[in-house]
Write a structure and sequence with these properties.
The chain has about 260 residues and is an all-alpha fold. It has 13 helices and no strands. Helix 5 packs antiparallel against helix 6 and helix 10 runs antiparallel to helix 11. The chain is globular, with a radius of gyration of 18 Å.
């Protein structure tokens, strides 16, 4: 498992380096096709190894966790949900904190179930506004903007930036430009700025997406995908980098299908 994750990290670093060269991505794909193929190969290896672990031990919580992650990274969302559900069946205590299940449900278009998962997570962690953002996205897709804003989870304690600012975006009290200006003018390290920009572009992009503004969504999700901090900065950021990459790909494929054929 460690070998596979190390290979993925190396591949991502190379991919991001190529993506920022002139002509790489150039408005059509933030990562090169060659590097995407390498990623898919790595994820397939993770899928095969975790499947073997499950075969050896059908009660392996880690096996189902890694198998579900690999399926999600490959864009097989409903299958990822099934693996995450199996984790909960094996260990019911996993349910409240299983944010990955909520995201997989969102992409499997089970929006009400996704919203319920994020509401459940709120009982586990009442500080993480990123969870509230995902509940809003799920509620928006299920019931529309007005109801989603009415149902925004309440937070009494401050979370790390840029999530308080992003939360204001979803509440309708802050604009994308204001969020980005706040980050770009803050007296913070280069690494911290790159970190905040990743999350800002990711969630600004996802907000545009649920509003049906696909072109703007792709712009910000492409910037999130090209971010140099997120893919190799730990499990959570890496998973969210995959979210941005996958959503940008879904929008790009949708745009391709919608284009008239000669």
């Amino acid at each position: 498992m460690l070998r596979i994750l190390t290979c993925i990290a190396i591949t991502l670093l190379t991919s991001l380096s190529l993506a920022q060269e002139p002509g790489a991505g150039d408005g059509t794909n933030p990562l090169s096709e060659e590097r995407l193929a390498e990623l898919e190969k790595d994820f397939q290896s993770l899928l095969d190894e975790s499947a073997a672990a499950i075969a050896r031990n059908p009660q392996s919580l880690r096996g189902y966790s890694e198998h579900g992650d690999a399926l999600f990274f490959l864009g097989r969302f409903k299958e990822a949900v099934a693996d995450y559900d199996q984790m909960i069946e094996l260990e019911p205590k996993e349910k409240a904190s299983h944010w990955r299940r909520g995201i997989a449900l969102f992409y499997a278009e089970q929006f009400e179930d996704a919203a319920a998962q994020f509401e459940s997570y709120h009982s586990f962690d009442q500080i993480d506004r990123e969870n509230g953002i995902w509940r809003y996205l799920s509620q928006h897709r299920a019931h529309g903007q007005a109801k989603a804003r009415e149902g925004l989870l309440k937070y009494q304690k401050d979370d790390r930036e840029p999530f308080p600012a992003v939360y204001k975006l979803f509440a309708g009290t802050m604009t994308p430009d204001e969020i980005l200006e706040q980050i770009n003018t803050a007296k913070i390290s280069k690494t911290e700025r790159e970190k905040r920009l990743f999350y800002a572009h990711l969630y600004i992009g996802l907000n545009h997406a649920v509003e049906g503004e696909d072109e703007q969504a792709r712009k910000h999700l492409s910037l999130a995908t090209r971010n140099t901090w997120s893919p190799t900065s730990g499990y959570g950021p890496h998973y969210m980098w995959q979210v941005g990459r996958l959503h940008e790909s879904l929008l790009r494929n949708k745009q391709s299908k919608d284009q008239p054929r000669n």
